[in-house]
Write a structure and sequence with these properties.
single chain, about 210 residues, alpha+beta, about 20% helix, DUF177 domain-containing protein, YceD
């Protein structure tokens, strides 16, 4: 009984930006076609701290080559990136290039279409480049992007950007053990009497009265 993919194929939209038509290759092994495309980036095209803005232009330099089992796609994608530095949280913007190569198999090859589940297939001589592009770009993006390799980050005490405040920036940190002793000393220190020194005041007057009475 023929094996079928666990993920059913869906009909591709030939007008989608990343759907390519391979009919010009006529399924003749050795025939090839080179093309340069500018397509809008799909949504959610990035990782947590950096990615390609939705709708931004992705530049593709492609080579499509017919082989016995399908169409081999080799290319380079140039994408604009936007995000924030993982250390100082400043916005960053750059351009990134990703190379990729993928074989899209004909559905009527491999002994009646018995291709592996992880292999990509053509549908009516159309191929969808988006999953290939996602793998090539997203797997290569840094999870902790930096505005520069030696970014010093933020001050742990006040949050100031260390690259702006300079190397002399610091905070006087009191040892918490000494701080506890200071608080204890403040609580137990005697307060002076209201009359000033303890030897004078009303107490002296009482003594004098006692002597007079005696």
């Amino acid at each position: 009984m023929p094996h079928e993919s666990r993920t059913p194929l869906t009909r591709l939209d030939p007008n989608a930006p990343l759907v390519l038509d391979t009919r010009a290759l006529s399924r003749q092994p050795g025939s090839s076609r080179e093309m340069r495309l500018s397509v809008p980036a799909p949504e959610n095209f990035g990782v947590e701290m950096v990615g390609v803005p939705e709708g931004a232009a992705i530049e593709l330099d492609l080579r499509l080559e017919a082989v016995l089992e399908g169409v081999l796609v080799t290319g380079t994608a140039t994408v604009p990136l936007e995000g924030e530095c993982a250390r100082c949280l400043d916005p960053i913007a750059s351009t990134f290039e990703a190379d990729f190569q993928e074989l899209f198999v004909y559905p009527d090859t491999r002994s009646g279409g018995n291709a592996d589940d992880d292999e990509l297939r053509l549908e009516d001589d159309l191929l969808d480049l988006e999953p290939v592009l996602r793998d090539a770009v997203l797997l290569a993006l840094p999870l902790s992007p930096l505005c520069r390799d030696d970014c010093p980050g933020l001050c742990a005490e006040c949050g100031a950007r260390l690259a702006d405040v300079g190397p002399d920036h610091h905070h006087d940190v009191v040892d918490p053990r000494w701080a506890a002793l200071q608080d204890l000393a403040g609580e137990t220190s005697p307060e002076p009497p209201e009359g000033g020194r303890g030897d004078s005041g009303p107490r002296g007057s009482v003594d004098q009265q006692g002597k007079q009475e005696g």
